[in-house]
């Protein structure tokens, strides 16, 4: 098996999405609007069919998977959790714009500045890179040809920035809530390559 169809789907909306709050490690549920939107999207588009399902393990990701793929068993891979914003969790730009540590973090171009009690951009990228490599390796090892991973906007954007197109920032790669991409990966002598990407 040389080809793998791996679909990356962003979880539905939460209160944090609706209020434009930083939400990474905070394990919050989907909002009522988020649940309704997922059901609306589900009735209007065809989500990829597959036999293997994965989630970041966050409540919002698990709930999304259970709405889109009811009664399907799935495995949790916690390394795909969203960025850990530390002390900036559940706060907005407006709340933080006068905070010196926040300014240092958002203006950091080298990715070395961590959120207080959280991650740096470099640490986050390395975590997602390793998790994605491990997931693809697991799929090839278990002869999985189709799989779905429900996770987070930052996670999906970072995967595409690292493994597909680094001319765009991870922000530009982020899908809207409840949407995502199906990646076609081809196995190589050393690793793999994303050869095609389709919108969900």
UniProtKB/TrEMBL annotation:
Keyword tags: Hydrolase
Keyword Coiled coil: no
Coiled-coil parts of chain: none
Pfam families, sorted: His_Phos_1 (PF00300)
InterPro entries attached to this UniProt entry: His_Pase_superF_clade-1, His_PPase_superfam, Phosphoglycerate_Mutase
PANTHER family: FRUCTOSE-2,6-BISPHOSPHATASE TIGAR
Protein name: Histidine phosphatase family protein
């Amino acid at each position: 098996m040389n080809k793998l169809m791996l679909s990356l789907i962003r979880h539905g909306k939460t209160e944090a999405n609706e209020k434009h709050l930083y939400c990474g490690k905070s394990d919050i549920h989907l909002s009522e609007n988020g649940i309704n939107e997922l059901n609306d999207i589900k009735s209007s588009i065809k989500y990829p069919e597959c036999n293997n399902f994965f989630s970041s393990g966050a409540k919002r990701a698990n709930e999304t998977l259970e709405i889109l793929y009811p009664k399907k068993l799935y495995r949790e891979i916690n390394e795909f959790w969203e960025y850990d914003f530390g002390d900036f969790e559940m706060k907005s730009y407006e709340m933080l714009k006068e905070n010196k540590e926040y300014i240092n973090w958002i203006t950091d171009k080298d990715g070395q500045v961590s959120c207080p009690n959280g991650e740096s951009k470099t640490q986050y990228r390395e975590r997602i890179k390793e998790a994605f490599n491990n997931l693809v390796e697991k799929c090839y090892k278990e002869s999985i040809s189709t799989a779905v991973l429900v996770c987070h906007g930052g996670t999906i954007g970072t995967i595409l920035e690292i493994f597909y197109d680094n001319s765009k920032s991870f922000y530009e790669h982020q899908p809207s809530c409840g949407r995502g991409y199906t990646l076609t990966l081809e196995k190589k002598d050393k690793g793999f390559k994303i050869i095609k990407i389709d919108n969900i």
